[in-house]
Amino acid sequence: QVQMVESGGDSVQPGGSLRLSCTASGLSLQGYAMAWFRQAPGKQREAVSAVSGGSLYYTEAVKGRFTISRDNANNTLYLQMDNMKPEDTAMYYCAAQPSPFFIPTQVALTNPSYFDYWGKGTQVTVSS
After folding, report:
1. DSSP reduced 3-state for 28
2. Exposed, middle or buried, 103 (CB in 10 Å: 0-12/13-18/19+)?
3. CA 26 to chain centre
4. What are the tens digits of pLDDT across the range 44-95?
5. Which residue has better confidence, 1 or 117?
6. Is the dihedral of CA 100, 102, 108, 109 positive or negative?
7. Rg of the chain (C-alpha set)
8. 119, 22 in Cβ contact below 8 A?
9. How far is CA 121 from CA 18, 20, 73, in A?
């Protein structure tokens, strides 16, 4: 049974930092495309960052502030978030999709429908 569990969400002040983690069980992350999505109340789920092979994606709003990384040995995906802003407030979800033979396009990596495996989310709140 595949499980993905996010952690690290918290309340921080603007300018602060958080590190989100997503630990997977029941699968090996090697060969998987991985992504972080977020969803604020009343808004659609949006892609924040994704990684597949050597390809990285960041939505424009987080470029230069967020860093995605993965530890395949420990089956964990990370999202380092620095210089956080109130508009970063959302539920953050990690997602995974097998991709052992090719690197998905950016269109695929930013589409929630592309991913089969999801965590339940961790809440991030940025407020003074």
Report:
1. coil
2. middle
3. 19
4. 999 999 999 888 999 999 999 999 999 989 999 999 999 999 999 999 999 9
5. 117
6. positive
7. 14
8. yes
9. 15, 10, 22
Residue written as token pair 């949006």: 46
**Predicted local distance difference test score (pLDDT) of residue 29:** 85
pLDDT tier, 28 (very low <50, low <70, confident <90, very high otherwise): confident
CA 30/CA 45 separation, integer angstroms: 25
Name the residue with higher pLDDT: 106 or 17. 17
Structure confidence at residue 43 (pLDDT): 96
Which amino acid type is present at position 80? Q
Q: How many residues does this entry show for the chain? A: 128
Q: What's the 3-state SS for 65-126? A: CEEEEEEHHHCEEEEEECCCCHHHCEEEEEEEEECCCCCCCHHHHCCHHHCCEECCCEEEEE
Average pLDDT taken over every residue of the chain: 94
CA distance 125 to 76: 22
Q: Are 109 and 50 in contact (CB under 8 A)?
A: yes
Which amino acid makes up residue 66? F
